[in-house]
Design brief:
single chain, alpha/beta, Rossmann fold, six-stranded mixed sheet, 15 strands, 20% strand
């Protein structure tokens, strides 16, 4: 396993900026407003021959100062407990805060290396700002600028020298590349973070009844029945008219971009509220980005129900989101854990189809039979002819069909071919893409008869 280093400190001292610089990513949202980061965010750092996992945490504040303060403090405590070393980030521009003294006192009891970094020191001419911090009773504070990289080398050399040697096998840095990537998406406050916490068996993410609690896209690796998964919790996606704050707009953009790197999207909906237009829109976003989709009707424990309630709700869902007719659905309760383990059974079934390759012979026999059964309409008095088909990609299965008039294939006939491929090729639970390209010569049926 790789060593773990936790970044801690009060709000707005630059922890997320340091995280992004060291991991060479933009995974942590950076904003001038305090309290942007709430969950723990993980990323790998490579420094010379050393590799470790860096954990960004929410800003340390008194428990009664902000609604999420207690949950954030709990996340910090868990990060410090799990870490092999801790980095307390201080603000060299703003100076000492009472919260800094509280954090120093807390970390004195930690039986692990603690490094004190004074951020926002943009050059040697500003290093005199660190002198005040000796009043906290700390030794050797490191001047550093996350924005400009000043002081990073000296700090990182000392930090990596203090870490235990990684026990990860050579080449294991990419071990999670084979993990099935699952994005947990939905409107605010439908239970996405609660679901991820239930799956992981710990309070990995901050959970609150306040919409918009999650702001970053949070990646977590887990293994279920021997299969690795990368769970990605995202910010709640509201209608554009409801999104006003700059920070929330950025969170929504990150949630949508997250779908670009997901295999399967778990679309979480609030069954107690029913299906909303925004639920359907989010499903459309996932489909546009080529994700397979599993529909989860959460908070089933809050629904007044009879023997037919689930059936009626699923029928309503199918009616409102006809374009997701291929996506399996189920009712769950993240709070009680009801049917949550079955999610991975569905994900496995969907993923197997999502990455499936179909033999060219079987594909063309299916196309020929579909055309024989229902020929396309004429185009300017001429017959539309199909020549052959081939699979161009997986994730999702993508088929290229060569035809004499590709632009003339009506969308209703495209839908017909898609349904024929689903039924004949066993692709009933995955999106399918059909691409029509121009080709001339002998059509498929003539070549077979000849």
């Amino acid at each position: 396993m790789k060593p773990i280093v936790a970044l801690v400190g009060r709000p707005n001292v630059g922890k997320s900026s340091i995280f992004n610089r060291l991991t060479r990513t933009r995974d942590a949202i950076v904003d001038n407003r305090p309290g942007v980061t709430r969950d723990r965010i993980y990323g790998d750092v490579h420094w010379d021959d050393a590799v470790f996992t860096l954990v960004d945490t929410g800003g340390y504040i008194p428990q009664d100062a902000e609604r999420f303060a207690g949950e954030i403090r709990r996340q910090i405590d868990q990060a410090v407990t799990a870490a092999d070393a801790v980095v307390l980030v201080l603000d060299g521009r703003a100076g000492i805060s009472p919260f800094d003294a509280d954090m120093v006192a807390l970390l004195r009891t930690a039986e692990k290396p603690v490094f004190y970094v004074v951020n926002k020191i943009d050059g040697a001419g500003h290093e005199d700002r660190i002198h005040d911090f000796y009043g906290l009773g700390i030794d050797n504070p490191y001047p550093l600028s996350a924005a400009h990289g000043y002081g990073v080398t000296d700090f990182m050399d000392d930090l990596t020298a203090s870490l235990p040697v990684s026990t990860e096998a050579p080449g294991a840095e990419g071990a999670d590349q084979g993990a099935i990537r699952i994005g947990v998406v939905g409107r605010p406050n439908v239970g996405k973070s609660s679901l991820v916490n239930r799956i992981l068996g710990e309070e990995r993410l901050v959970v609150s009844d306040v919409p918009g609690t999650t702001r970053d896209a949070i990646d977590t690796l887990c293994v279920v029945d021997g299969i690795p998964y990368r769970m990605i919790d995202t910010a709640g996606i509201r209608r554009k008219s409801r999104v006003s704050a700059r920070l929330e707009k950025f969170s929504v953009v990150k949630a949508l971009k997250t779908l670009d790197r997901c295999d399967v999207a778990l679309l979480v909906m609030d069954a107690s509220e029913g299906i909303t237009d925004q639920d359907v829109s989010i499903g459309g976003y996932a489909l546009e980005r080529g994700c397979a989709v599993v529909l989860l009707l959460n908070k089933w424990d809050l629904v007044e129900k009879d023997d037919r309630t689930a059936k009626r709700l699923k029928e309503r869902l199918r009616e409102q989101a006809k374009f997701l007719s291929f996506a399996p659905s189920m009712t769950i309760s993240a709070l009680t854990g009801r049917r949550v383990p079955r999610i991975f059974t569905l994900v496995g079934e969907v993923y197997e189809q999502y990455v499936r390759r179909v033999g060219t012979g079987q594909l063309n026999r299916t196309l020929e039979e579909a055309v024989r059964r229902n020929e396309p309409s004429l185009h300017k008095g001429r017959r539309i002819k199909f020549y052959y088909a081939t699979q161009a990609a997986t994730r999702p299965p993508t088929f290229v069909l060569f035809v004499n008039y590709p632009e003339a294939v009506h969308f209703s006939y495209q839908r017909y071919l898609t349904n024929q491929f689903r039924e004949a090729l066993g692709l009933s639970q995955t999106p399918i893409r059909l691409i029509f390209r121009q080709r001339t010569g002998r059509p498929l049926a003539e070549r077979r008869s000849g």
